[in-house]
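Researcher: Here's my situation. A collaborator sent me these components and asked whether they could plausibly form a single complex. I don't have experimental data yet, so a predicted model of the whole assembly would be a useful starting point for our discussion.
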Amino acid sequence: MTTEALHSASTDLASKSTFQSYKDIVQENDLVLIWISRDHIKPVVMKHGENFNTRYGTFPHTSIIGKPYGSQIATRTAKANKFGFIHVLQPTAELWTLSLPHRTQIVYTYDSSYIMNRLRLGPNSTIIEAGTGSGSLSHQLARTCGKVLTYEFHEVRCEQAKQEFKEHGLLEEDNGNLVITHRDVCNEGFKLNDRDCEASAVFLDLPAPWDAIPHLNTQGILKKNEKVSVCCFSPCFEQVDKTLKALKENGWQEIEMVEIQGKNFESRRQMVRTLDDAINILKDQKERKDAGIEKRNKMNKKILTEAAKNSKTENQTENSATTSKDETKAEVEGSGTEADKQTDATEQSPQLKKPKFNPFGKGFKVKEGDLNYNWIQVSKMESEIKSHTSYLTFASKIYDMKRETEPNDQ
Amino acid sequence: MTTEALHSASTDLASKSTFQSYKDIVQENDLVLIWISRDHIKPVVMKHGENFNTRYGTFPHTSIIGKPYGSQIATRTAKANKFGFIHVLQPTAELWTLSLPHRTQIVYTYDSSYIMNRLRLGPNSTIIEAGTGSGSLSHQLARTCGKVLTYEFHEVRCEQAKQEFKEHGLLEEDNGNLVITHRDVCNEGFKLNDRDCEASAVFLDLPAPWDAIPHLNTQGILKKNEKVSVCCFSPCFEQVDKTLKALKENGWQEIEMVEIQGKNFESRRQMVRTLDDAINILKDQKERKDAGIEKRNKMNKKILTEAAKNSKTENQTENSATTSKDETKAEVEGSGTEADKQTDATEQSPQLKKPKFNPFGKGFKVKEGDLNYNWIQVSKMESEIKSHTSYLTFASKIYDMKRETEPNDQ
Amino acid sequence: MNPLTHIAYDQHVLIKLPSDNSKICFIKKDGVIGLGKFGSFNINDIVGYPLGTTFDIVYDSSVEDTLTETDASASTEVKSAEEKPKEDSVGSEETGQPAKKKQKKFVNKPVGKIVPRLYATNAEDDAEEETSSSERSAIVADAAADLIALQNSSATNKDLINLGSKVQKMTSEEIEKLKEASVDGQEIIQKIIESHENFHQKTVYSQEKYMSRKQKKFAKTFTVEYLTSSGLLQYLFYKGDTMRINDMSIETMAMLLNLGNVQPCGHYLVMDESGGLLVYALMERMFGGNNLEKENLGTITFLHESEHANLDLLKYSNYSSEFISKHIKTISVWEFFEPSTKEELAKDVVFLTNEQINKLHPHKKGTYHRKLKWYHNQLELVNIASKKDYDGLILNTTLQLTGLVPKLGEYLHGSRPLVCYSQFREPLLELSHKLYTDLRYLAPTVLETRCRPYQSIRGKIHPLMTMRGGGGYLLWCQKVLPVDPESLT
Amino acid sequence: MNPLTHIAYDQHVLIKLPSDNSKICFIKKDGVIGLGKFGSFNINDIVGYPLGTTFDIVYDSSVEDTLTETDASASTEVKSAEEKPKEDSVGSEETGQPAKKKQKKFVNKPVGKIVPRLYATNAEDDAEEETSSSERSAIVADAAADLIALQNSSATNKDLINLGSKVQKMTSEEIEKLKEASVDGQEIIQKIIESHENFHQKTVYSQEKYMSRKQKKFAKTFTVEYLTSSGLLQYLFYKGDTMRINDMSIETMAMLLNLGNVQPCGHYLVMDESGGLLVYALMERMFGGNNLEKENLGTITFLHESEHANLDLLKYSNYSSEFISKHIKTISVWEFFEPSTKEELAKDVVFLTNEQINKLHPHKKGTYHRKLKWYHNQLELVNIASKKDYDGLILNTTLQLTGLVPKLGEYLHGSRPLVCYSQFREPLLELSHKLYTDLRYLAPTVLETRCRPYQSIRGKIHPLMTMRGGGGYLLWCQKVLPVDPESLT
């Protein structure tokens, strides 16, 4: 199948935002996420004739267009016989959160997923979000909710976000489900010009949510005679206290504050070194010392230097272990890819490898996972963890509660 | 060596509290901790002629006196040929914390160890503790500090604590290093009748530490011209806020609030069940179904019932896994002890065991660790965790700072 | 009536009790629901109110506290909605003790009147309208705190010597009488506090404990909630039944849905040992809780390890069985990984023309139709097994992951997420190492999330002293399509 | 002068800088300490003040900002106290960038005058005496918050368009001039804030970040602290050198000391890969920081895996080398587990009488005495290896624990704790399973502890946004003496 044929085959889906549908093949004008490494994901719009440049080489968009999403793309680096690699991913709200340009503090998935669950968001929901900020949460909301009404009071940021939403096909005017309004909701409230909000849920990421909360009582903002929920997102404790007060004063119920603590773990290996190994090394050292073989020491030093050259320093090993796969994918030669696969194959029976006696003791740098040694799998916490984002204060309310007297379904 | 000989050999140490020294052999009148299970540790004073009773049997103190600390003690249970077991431990501050009678919320080792470290406690320290509460922290302080001045405002609790400290040989009047005072420090301050406190550190576990903080400025309470530290221990956020205010108003520096989050993990096993196992079970079920061998089903059911009788139900397995070792030690017959050792021996090569095909699928209850199956080791968090004890607010100060003009050492 | 927003007949709802416990009830016309000591009520009285409404149960003082015939039927009603009637009997929910003991105590209150609590529309109206149970306890506690503030700023239990029930001037008989007569549990608690001589001498903690204990014991209120997947999970948690869902926490489940990029149009390959809970959660994100009538709706292919799929918990949902069978395809791992070919299937069936069928003996005709139905079922399974390019692979299984996941990953489209749940971190660590060396998986990450709830009463804010441990871990990665190394030479 | 409480000559101290960084310095008579852009000072000027004192460095406005000869010696001074002079050069501490870059920027300030900050004695005096660096930033932030409160209660950065440095009216030259002239860094910051047009338009967060950045950049203050084990650990942490101590956190180390029941009279068997840090921490609990002269003091038997014990960090301590060699016994695992017998040792030595010695050739006499010294050393090792009944087994080693620990446990007295640290949980899990089936160990428990620091400024309290991960895990159990099963028949 040619690229053209595929192109036309999927035009039906073109109307739907890439954040709200699944795409098969990369087409011209698609927004794609180019994965260079875990901390380096770039949004790029595909255009024939343009290039994507990395320090590993240049990737013409043409080499990407027509490939299935998820494809690894190779390019020859400046050095002969070496290749650079990237992966081309379809944007999702979560990947976007990892890649997006930070205009403000953003809401990460640990928090956003819990918020979305607790506010019971789904295709039937209409949610108010204030403020829009970097738009990380807006994308997640647009993916999941029926309608997203987002407010941003910072004019420049609002324009930037609107432009972004437009490019991502999320705006209502472009057949999407998101409406962004430049507004200071604390002063001006939530009322839209053209309609009632009729929201079923509210998310307030504002410095002073207590100023916005009374505006939720305005007719038409929240759905009537139906349980509606609110979540306020505030970093400081004193903000929580004021928020609790405002929620209570405005008749909100089931008020509860929580915080979310998320952690990532790296998968690492620790060398198995037995007591006997240690004793044998000491014996060996003593023996060599006693024999006074200074010459051998020198030789060993030479071997050590050699080995150190070939392997990496301990520090580097640490970094590369974190990102080694990415780096491997991006840096190694073609044959390196093969070597990687071989690692995979041999991995399945590491217990067959005999632990090799290490005559150099701890000073010798061994690459993590070196098959000449035994390893146990260990989990390593990140060296710096996000210990706090914000406190989440939830509450619910039923405006104008009344009994439905004519059950239709029964 | 006879018990008598040992008895007299260690009388030199008898003057030192059991919480502040190490003992070799259990002697008459010793306070020992009897370990029945992790959640069941009993302090008992050894007296010839008395008995310690458990549901596993009766242990005469005479069978304990003269044994080295740490000994497992056996007694024949009512059932013939069965034995009950306990362990006899020397009290330490940390074990005492696990066993003590709770008069109030207690300070657990996660918090206390950090507090002791942060307040830089050691043989040179004099610490003020208010209030004494259940005395858990007091024991740890008495173990580590040069002097402990503890205050309790609740008269009954104060008397109980004093009696306990006396029995444990911690009181100053009995050659110990602890002084307990019945006092409401918030109203009456810390001043002792017979001396200056000259404390180098302060720990305030009070509902309103802000009322006590100004009393620390009284002459003689804290050491002069030397950095002194304080820690306030409060569960609620608003208490922290008021404490911060009081500390600041009273000239305290390096004010910092932290919280300690500790977790215990159980060591458990999860059965290795492969995809092939699952497919084989399905095939086997189909085969038996197709062949219409109802009879075999019945037979299997019989085997299942039999097996279930011999092993435990899944729930029971869960509980027993947590405490199985304790229970094993306390409940099993003599031969059971042997069996346990065998488990240990075979444990070392679990990979030699072939995974057995389990024809009953998930419904069949298998005892965790059953050597007929493969297992991986897993860590299980407690099902309920202590998520909060109190916030710890630290601060430091130098009273009457002046430069020492005559260095002696130089 | 919209069953997503209002209490409607023939749906399951979650009834939250003052004890923090909850139960699942079926809203059956003319039925009665018994809540043990919290009271009983007629189902018809609550239908039509919005879901989320809190009701008080009110009794005339003349009603006697005995088990009437109505009550018996009520408890049957409740039981029928539960899965394990014995364990879920009303008594069990208050005491948390083994079923045996509870049965003895099983005495339902007679049916009472229902008074819904009105929510205030705006700030002006509601100053005095403090209603829900959590709010109410806050008020009483606040009042108590004020009391203390008046007395002594260093509020402590200094002079409070434990004299047991002596300090409590009300007898339990008096309290029981109050309970039957009173309109509102709050009043009882207020009276108890007034009669408790030393209440203001307790420390903040003891007060909190005391208030909360009394609140849970005496309030006669309940709240009717829409049965969300989280509500269902919470319900199982309070029942002590989390092992049934491999100990998954709400926050971990929520994270899984987001990392899985679950959306209405997706086709997901799912393996789940939670009896349908995870599928129910996916369906909320996909279909919104009921039979959504839209185009291009997605599907869930549910892979099961045992002979039959266990999706028991879906019976509580609002979806029709037609909707479920249209959107949830179930297939065993055997059928999935070792499917028959269409040819093999066709061999087993002799296809007859309509004429031939009509000529068959009625007995044989039935057999033929059954055979034909089997054939079409099998054919669908073969079709399912042949589908590749799923939009997400979502796993909650205790099968060995290192063997299973790479096989299932074959069925995933490029640039689509794989999210794997495990109660323990170790199997995910193992899997992560495995996937790390497999070029088809990008950036496997093991993660943990934990929601820490606070006591959210102003003036006494602190994280709850205890919370549930466990909750599980996730592994997340993206399926990718590596370059063929041959092409690089 | 007591070096535990006051700055005294010939001891190492920890100097804390406004950048949150710290350095270890040796208090050498007549020396100079250079703190890079934070300034330099004469050591003699700080001696005699209590440890914990904060000093400001004050310059006359005429002093030029060039590297003088004094500065050069100052930086040498500092380097001599450090272990890796290059990495620890002053520049590295402010930027955290690789050493190469820093060397270029290395320009020390000239020596300035020292002004100690006085602590107020009581509440009345200190209303205006806000002193320490953390306090000062609090004040400025408070002031800023007040400003905002006056302006608009919904303090946000609504109208704050990012125009880079345009909103900052002061040029960096102006700031530099201020720095050299000003008595107090606080004033600079206040001026910067005043000149920052949009400061009050920033959100709480941006303000905090801004304040803290400026504070760290411009304050010319330092605090001299006693060098505790925690301070040393913190120092290694900021240096990015935690792998050297197997990533142990302060809270985990503290927990280890308590679980190990460390006390002055104990005899502990220790294996530690932290270069002496853990031994230093044990010695604090045992001896209080200096040569404690008491009876019955305990010992630490330090088992090392390599040929020589690595206790490098003890060189920063206040203990005399005599005290250390009396209380710390070092022995390699080989010598410990496979000791020679006294007979074997005696075979290698010919013991001579004094007469015989005197007759020896002077050259041979020396050889004989060396041989004799070796013999006595070896004899002590044999004695150490023969000791059983230790009061605690405390481990921080990356050797395989399942093989090592049961062997070491043999040397532990009954009813004494075993505490084992590991950076990772998995080796402890393995060990825990191993010990669980060994009747000599009671109740092995794997645990984790984590200290979560808060920003403790009233009005803006929240947990710090980031904190260090890792920190390690502990396994704790009690050695016990199982009943001989033979005795039960």
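Model: Some features of this prediction you could bring to your collaborator: Confidence is low (pLDDT under 50) at residues 1-14, 307-357 of chain A. The radius of gyration of chain A is 29 Å.
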